[in-house]
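Q: Given only this backbone (261 positions), what sequence would you predict?
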């Protein structure tokens, strides 16, 4: 099963690029964030024409998440009951008895503001939610834009980024707390000592200067991680004209999917 996560930064603006990429990579399940479209404007038929089932949870101009899957999706849940602001940031389902969670963590905007503490609260409550899920299942995949760079290898310059949004000690500790309950950062496990970025700001020629951050993740429980055979970031997608400011992250999991890839 080939899975991917991608902050697409507007599903309608980048639809052709997304469809081309998932076809080229033969992606079975893709989690998309920042779709920036209400459900009645989501391009469901374009995905269905390629053989995908689709569920979205979106709004006009902001946030929004969606999952497209070649497999049937069961127990679909939209929203996060513990979200203090009830924003459209989480959608989940079950695919082949695996719990798939797609989440778009708040950016936090500026350290020390209400938005920053909302972000920390969201990460803390996400950990609580995952702990409760793990009482019932050990097969969980969490994908999304987590808006936190975890280590010095995940930012272009750790001294410059120190105490900047997305790289404060509190944010990093909150994400590490999630890993500590039994999740694996799959891309980092496959690239132990390599600088990895998944986001490059549109400003200041950040991509050309490789001033990036790794904020997009595939996290899995041990039971799933043991079946992962590859994980990478497709930086070439970020280089294309009109690209999202994020690159897709993808992985292959060797599981029985009833004859589908």
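A: Predicted residues:
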């Amino acid at each position: 099963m080939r899975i991917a996560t991608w902050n697409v930064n507007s599903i309608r603006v980048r639809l052709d690029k997304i469809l081309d990429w998932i076809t080229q990579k033969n992606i079975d399940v893709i989690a998309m964030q920042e779709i920036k479209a209400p459900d009645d404007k989501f391009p469901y038929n374009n995905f269905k024409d390629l053989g995908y089932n689709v569920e979205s949870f979106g709004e006009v101009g902001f946030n929004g998440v969606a999952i497209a899957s070649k497999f049937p999706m069961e127990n679909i849940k939209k929203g996060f009951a513990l979200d203090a602001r009830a924003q459209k940031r989480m959608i989940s389902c079950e695919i082949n008895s695996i719990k798939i969670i797609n989440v778009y963590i708040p950016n936090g905007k500026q350290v020390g503001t209400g938005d920053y503490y909302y972000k920390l609260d969201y990460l803390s409550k996400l950990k609580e939610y995952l702990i409760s899920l793990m009482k019932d299942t050990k097969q969980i995949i969490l994908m999304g834009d987590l808006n936190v760079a975890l280590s010095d290898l995940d930012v272009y310059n750790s001294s410059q980024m120190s105490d900047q949004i997305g790289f404060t000690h509190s944010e990093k500790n909150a994400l590490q707390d999630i890993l500590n309950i039994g999740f694996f950062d799959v891309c980092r496990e496959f690239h132990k000592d390599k600088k990895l970025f998944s986001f490059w700001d549109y400003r200041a020629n950040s991509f050309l200067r490789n001033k990036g951050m790794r904020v997009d993740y595939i996290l899995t429980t041990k039971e799933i991680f043991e079946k992962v055979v590859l994980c990478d970031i497709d930086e070439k997608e970020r280089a294309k004209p009109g690209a999202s400011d994020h690159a897709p992250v993808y992985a292959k999991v060797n599981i029985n999917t009833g004859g589908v890839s």
